[in-house]
Design a protein that fits this description.
With 356 residues, this protein is an alpha/beta fold. The protein is built from 12 helices and 15 strands. An 8-stranded mixed β-sheet has the order 8-9-10-11-12-13-15-14, sandwiched between helices. A 5-stranded parallel β-sheet has the order 2-1-3-4-5, with helices on both faces. A two-stranded antiparallel ribbon has the order 6-7. Helix 4 links the parallel strand 4 and strand 5. The protein starts with 5 loop residues before the first strand and ends in a 5-residue tail after the last strand.
Length: 356
């Protein structure tokens, strides 16, 4: 699972002039700022009133993801880029504000498999009836509501004209953030599987997606698992993949086109490619040791080869004593080259056949 920082949208839902919502939102972000940083999350404050959303005016159903108006496209980009949400909402007549319901209704897939927490405020019920109302809606959108909430009873949270929540409210907010971050990371594979850049993998429940610098930690672990066996077979520790630090891996992930195969947050396999002149270089083809023999390596190799359009040949290398790897590549049409670029290794290549 990627270690990138989470983006948590703190959405103030009231648009009434002089409402308490902006003050509650500011208190929340100020209170949680230090904890969010430690947890690897960025809190992004936003007010619904700043979005300029009229009552839903899109012709296509939100589930299609087709948006004609710029205000919808902007809202879509904001929500799609978030990993979780905290909704700061008042209670109006036993329910959530119409502005919140409208903002939710505008979108569909952008909400899916993201956690949502609630910070409510009000008089008798401290806004809790608005939260119950909203939970019926957000679950339909495949948002995942937290159990932890923060409920501010206005009479308890005000000192004269100044908002001053009690220490217990701050503690509740800390608990909400901790649960939100845990759930956002746990749900990440669900979100990734539905991204347009993801494709179904060869194993049940697996999916492949491009790897980036934020995946350096998982790639480092997979490399060391896989190339230790290569080290033993070839009787050498002089294998770069065994010695690269996460920083080294992060650097090459920014330079190569890499694909990772994932399932339930675990990196199962990977491969990388890069063009040099008319050659497509394929490297770091790795499959978790417990998944060998299931066709994962062949599947990843074919994914890598699909990037070879326009190339003259595809080139790869492996250890000179890695007979199982050599046999795999030869079965896929690769031929041994007479000389290897590195001592103790062999290079193989095959010609790219142009599409008819």
């Amino acid at each position: 699972m990627t270690t990138k920082r989470l983006r948590i949208l703190v959405l103030v839902c009231s648009t009434r002039p002089n409402a308490l919502g902006p003050g509650v939102g500011q208190w929340l972000t100020d209170t949680l700022g230090p904890s969010a940083d430690l947890l690897g999350a960025d809190l992004v404050p936003l007010a619904i009133g700043d979005l300029g959303l009229p009552f839903l005016d899109e012709e296509e159903h939100p589930s299609t993801g087709i948006h004609q108006h710029e205000h919808t496209r902007r809202w879509s980009r904001i929500v799609d880029g978030a990993d979780g949400f905290v909704l700061v909402t008042p209670e109006y007549n036993y329910g959530m504000p119409a502005t919140l319901k409208n903002a939710l209704d505008y979108l569909g897939p952008e909400w899916a498999w993201k956690p949502v927490g609630f910070v409510s405020y009000g008089h008798t019920s401290a806004g809790t009836r608005a939260v119950q109302h909203a939970k019926q809606v957000v679950t339909t959108l495949r948002l995942v509501p937290l159990g932890a909430t923060v409920a501010l009873r206005i009479a308890d949270a005000m000192q004269g004209d100044r908002l001053a929540p009690e220490a217990r409210h701050a503690d509740a907010a800390e608990g909400l953030l901790a649960e939100l971050v845990r759930l956002a990371r746990a749900l990440a594979p669900m979100r990734e599987r539905e991204r347009t850049a993801s494709v179904a993998g060869p194993l049940p429940g697996s999916y492949a997606r491009p790897l980036g610098p934020d995946d350096a930690a998982e790639v480092t672990v997979l490399q060391r698992c896989c190339w230790m066996e290569e080290s033993i077979v070839n009787d050498t520790l002089a294998i770069p993949a065994l010695h690269e630090s996460p920083a080294d891996v992060r650097a090459w992930l920014a330079d190569w086109q890499a694909t990772g195969l994932w399932r339930d947050g675990r990196l199962l396999g990977m491969v990388r490619t890069r063009r040099t002149g008319t050659d497509l270089h394929v490297g770091r083809l790795a499959v978790a040791p417990d998944l060998r023999g299931l066709g994962v390596g062949r599947w990843l190799l074919r994914r890598a080869e699909s990037a070879g359009e326009g190339a003259g040949r595809i080139v790869l290398s492996t250890g000179a004593a890695s007979h199982r790897n050599i046999a795999l590549y030869q079965r896929q049409g690769y031929e041994l080259l007479p000389e290897a670029a590195e001592a103790g290794a062999v290079d193989l290549a095959k010609t790219v056949v142009a599409a008819a």
